[in-house]
Design a protein that fits this description.
The chain is an alpha/beta fold. The protein has 7 helices and 9 strands. A 9-stranded mixed β-sheet has the order 1-8-7-9-6-4-5-3-2, sandwiched between helices. Strand 7 (208-212), helix 5 (217-230) and strand 8 (235-239) form a beta-alpha-beta unit. Helix 1 (18-38) packs across helix 7 and helix 3 packs across helix 7. The longest helix has 21 residues, at 18-38.
């Protein structure tokens, strides 16, 4: 177990610049389409909105010049799909850095933070690295069916995908799960923690968290250090047992099952956001500047990981 408690980033926060404003606007546009125009994206609400979300993501990625690969499978009698694109590396093309985010929601929730922010971040990283030549292969995947009742079942999109990667004997050197990235607060008492960690950690929810299990601790430390170098934004990190509530609550869990190193990046979701898994998880609750700063830092992290 390793924990780096959230603290001030130690640098003065940079004032918003033109580049950050453009990024924030792009992120907002994608979140508002997914969570505002489309809304709840779950098979339990009917397959149509889930399909609309998939079509929007496909269109955005193809606009950026990527060739999209659909991994289709059947869940509850409906055809669903994971959506993947990649940029092949040069000298170490067999080594894959995979960044993923789920595009479904719980029934009845528009899912702005959970997880339209993660998908918007995925699209922004795809945009900013589309012309980047790297030694390793970069793969970006939008996963379906992360939320209950599919979570940690054979119909979970990330598990279907990770199992296929293992069958193909693919060498995934790092997996980043982008899970709820856009809710921040400076209010004392706005941050909670799973037992027994709350007594020693700050209670202000103004930071981004990097989470792994013990097997992925080295990757966790590396990613956190890269983020700290890239962006002046508060952060914390923890390598914890998977039984701690929340540690395995996203797509990275599926890659742990297949013995791949994986890290979740999150605003801590239910430990901070009062609108988590509710009908009030709407675009109006998102901190666009905070989200943009996190995504800018993550873009640099991914760029460094692929080489």
């Amino acid at each position: 177990m390793w924990i780096r408690l959230p603290t001030d980033c130690g640098q003065p926060t940079r004032a918003p610049d033109a580049q950050l404003e453009v990024l924030a606007s792009q992120l907002r546009q994608d979140v508002e389409v997914l969570a505002g125009q489309i809304g709840s994206r779950s098979l339990l609400d009917g397959p149509q909105k889930l399909l609309q979300a998939a079509q929007y993501i496909e269109h955005r990625l193809e606009q950026l010049g990527y060739r999209l690969v659909r991994q289709e499978f059947t869940a509850w009698g409906h055809k669903v799909a994971n959506l993947a694109v990649e940029r092949t590396g040069t000298t170490r093309a067999d080594q894959i850095v995979l960044v993923g985010a789920h595009y479904d929601t719980v029934p009845g929730s528009p899912g702005a933070d959970d997880n339209a922010t993660g998908v918007a971040a995925l699209l922004a990283i795809a945009d900013r690295l589309r012309s980047h030549q790297s030694s390793r292969t970069l793969r970006l995947v939008a996963f379906v069916n992360e939320e209950p009742p599919f979570f940690q079942t054979e119909a979970m999109g990330a598990l279907v995908y990770a199992q296929q990667c293992r069958r193909n004997q693919e060498h995934i050197t790092a997996m980043l799960s982008l899970e709820s990235l856009g809710y921040y607060s400076e209010r004392p008492g706005s941050q909670q923690y799973p037992m027994p960690f709350g007594w020693m950690a700050p209670n202000v929810g103004n930071f981004i968290a990097f989470i792994s299990n013990g097997r992925s601790e080295l990757l966790l430390r590396h990613i956190a250090a890269l983020f700290a170098e890239a962006e002046a934004f508060p952060w914390g990190a923890a390598a914890l047992p998977e039984l701690v509530p929340g540690v395995a609550f996203s797509d990275h869990w599926a890659f742990w099952q297949q013995r791949y190193p994986a890290v979740m990046v999150t605003d801590t979701a239910m430990y901070r956001n009062p609108f988590y898994h509710t009908a009030q998880d709407s675009p109006e609750t998102i901190d666009w500047q905070g989200l943009a700063r996190v995504v800018r830092g993550l873009t640099t992290v991914v760029q460094k990981l692929v080489g």
